[in-house]
Amino acid sequence: MQYINLADNIYFLGYNDRRTNLFENIWPIPHGISYNSYLIVDEKITLIDTVERSFIDEYLESIEEIIGNRPIDYLVINHMEPDHSGALKAIVNKYPEITLVGNKKTFAFVESFYMEPENVHMVHDNDVLELGKHRLQFQTIPMVHWPETMVTFEETNNILFSGDAFGSYGTLDGGIFDDEINLDFYEIEVMRYFTNIVGKYCPHTQRAIKKLAPLNIKMIAATHGPIWRTDLDWVLTRYNKWSSYDLDKGVVIVYGSMYGNTQKMAEVIARRLAEKGIKNIRVYDASKTHSSYIINDIFKYKGFIVGSPAYNNALFPNVQTLLSTIEHMAPKNHYLGIFGNFAWNGGGVKNLKLFAENIKWEQVYEPIEEKGSLKKERKEELLKLADAMAEKLHADFE
Ligand code: FEO
Q1: Ligand 1 interacting residues, C-beta cut-off 6 A
Q2: Which positions are tagged coiled coil (predicted)?
């Protein structure tokens, strides 16, 4: 991608990745992702974060196109994950006098991933680095998304270089600023990036939001996705809602099913919920939909009902994968229902009960387990489960 001005002598160097199928080799990115780096040209030339390694050649060329033969003085490392530090070694090799700017946790990562850094400048919260006309102020925001993560606030134009925070999946297809693009496209991509990558660290995100609140931010330049310069509230409001587990009225139902019996149980629950006035109901087959999308809806809706058949005396494997992801992310404030099916000695519901114990969400009804095809007695139980869930939700969202 060509370089673009954010402000006088501040350049966006962003690269679109439409080749990678799985971000972190886990999460599907059918619409790709961008890696955004920033360059400030002043008395001291400064890079803020780099890019993923597959873009090194064009990245170095773009930098040279802007600064010619001048050396880069500083590389500010907001975040060391290799999707942003992938070009670090190439930058240091090309500009050996460069000083790496980071906090006390940053340089240990530099050493473990790349090399023992030679020239370093350690910063602490509120420290300022003078570049000439531009001043950079630093604030650590640990665990959003790694322990060393910090943000850099450019005080002349009030630009927050925010690292992963406020980032998004999805490439930048021409437009890079929020006012140049239809944000409908990014609605799910911003949320999936948040829930998939940062969602485990909601309390840390809340602390970061509060810590950054006093800054007079006029532009947010993240390391992925659009740059926010017109409607900052669009992304700030959403981040605040998601990271505070502020859930909407609705139910996510997930099931695993080999021959359709557990699916039938899910359909009974879904229909009854609709009859009881619940309008947001999302039913997923755990074998069909990647947990990236399901976890996203779990961060949206307060109700969660999960069903599993027994599979060799255990949970159905794809349900197990999803539940492991949920336990790992540990979102809060949900209501839970569990059900399942077995052919001989069970294993589905037995393990769903263990999930319920671990996740500690309020169970709205007792676990329900059918043997083989769905029969009248169990169907009645499923209706009661749906009724109990609907009642809880109506009470909460009066
Ligand atoms: Fe985009 Fe945590 O790296």
Answers
A1: 79, 81, 83-84, 145, 164, 223-224
A2: none
Domains recognised in the chain with CATH numbers? 5-243 (3.60.15.10), 249-396 (3.40.50.360)
Q: Which atom of ligand 1 is nearest to the CA of 223?
A: 1
- Taking only the tens of pLDDT, the chain with its 398 residues reads 567 999 999 999 999 999 999 999 999 999 999 999 999 999 999 999 999 999 999 999 999 999 999 999 999 999 999 999 999 999 999 999 999 999 999 999 999 999 999 999 999 999 999 999 999 999 999 999 899 999 999 999 999 999 999 999 999 999 999 999 999 999 999 999 999 999 999 999 999 999 999 999 999 999 999 999 999 999 999 999 999 999 999 999 999 999 999 999 999 999 999 999 999 999 999 999 999 999 999 999 999 999 999 999 999 999 999 999 999 999 999 999 999 999 999 999 999 999 999 999 999 999 999 999 999 999 999 999 999 999 999 999 98
Position of tokens 């850099």?
Answer: 152
Half-sphere exposure for 215 (CA within 13 Å, toward CB): 27
Residue having the nearest C-alpha atom to atom 1 of ligand 1: 164
CA dist., res. 316 & res. 120, Å (int): 51
CA torsion angle 243 229 193 135 (round to 10): -80
222/284 Cα distance (integer angstroms): 32
